[in-house]
Amino acid sequence: MQTYESDANIGNIKILAVDMDKTLLTDERVLPQGLDERLDKLADAGIVFCPASGRPAPKLEEMFEGIKNRLAFCPDNGACVIYRGSYIYKSNIDVELYQQVLNRASEDPRAVPVLCCFDEFYVLARDHQYHDEISVYYNTINYVDSFEGIDFESNKISVFFPGYDAEPAFRETYSPEFSDKLYVTNAGREWIDFMNLGVDKGAGVAHLCEHLGIDIADAAAVGDTYNDIPMLERVGHSFIVDNAEEHMNVHAKWRIPSNNDGGVLTLIDAILAAR
Questions:
Q1: What are 35-51's pLDDT values in tens digits?
Q2: Mind listing the pLDDT tens digit for each residue in 199-252?
Q3: Please, which residues have CB within 8 angstroms of residue 210's CB and are 6 or more apart in sequence?
Q4: Alpha-helix runs per DSSP H in 64-119
């Protein structure tokens, strides 16, 4: 697989959409040193930086607190898109449909279901023992005895698997049962996410391009795992980090250094140098 230096048109990139966990973030889940000044340079060059993640908007914006109004965000695997502090796209799931998923996951002893309602999140009281793990991704968590009767505006259901068995659960249970009704995707070995059909990170980046009048051929994406595939296959410039799993090689054109080696920083430097 070719490295990023082989992208002859890297200087044409106008949007850079980047996955967070194991892509931009180090294995310690922190932003790489030197990112802030590079994001300033991207903004000055008119290039839009867009964190694209299964994480919800509040957590994403919190990580870029000082400059969030200069960025775009593609949270919840593309189920909403934010540009400079304002929502430009939302995709809400039908209440009856998300109740079906919540009921199924509530019956699964492997699963910890989370209802995502943009700024508020709902988890069963029985699963409070997993608060430390869940709160990494969700801020305002409301613990409820039952999901019955809840009818809040929601754009995503996430299911956490403490046993790191999300992949077999996806293959054996959740994809067969729900993929005809919802877009179901693995977010690593710990999570399965459910959004409306047609919603994914690739669609989210496409909505951003449309809003800004930018050809998606001039958009770039960086990722490492399953839920990054739709955006990697949709943009004109697709990159995976060196720590991505081998099965991701067929979904991107170029490779950059690993998350722990500042791969995204290296790519930003290459983009700016080619301008």
A1: 999 999 999 999 999 99
A2: 999 999 999 999 999 999 999 999 999 999 999 999 999 999 999 989 999 999
A3: none
A4: 95-106
Q: Is domain 2-90+199-274 classified as CATH 3.50.50.60?
A: no
Residue 78 φ/ψ region, left for φ over 0, alpha for ψ in the -120 to 50 degree band, beta for the rest: left
Residues in contact with 13: Cβ distance below 8 Å, sequence separation at least 6, in sequence order: 47, 218, 219, 220, 237, 271
Per the CB < 8 A criterion, the answer to whether 15 and 72 are in contact is yes
Calculate the alpha carbon distances from 187 to 167, 173, 203, 222 in Å: 9, 16, 17, 15
Per the listing, tokens 């994809």 go with 175
Please give the Cα distance from 183 to 204 (Å, whole number): 13
Report the amino acid identity of residue 124.
L
CB-facing half-sphere around the CA of 190: CA atoms within 13 A: 9
In whole angstroms, give the CA distance from residue 35 to residue 43.
Answer: 12
Domain with CATH 3.30.1240.10 in the chain: 95-196
Fold of 95-196: 3.30.1240
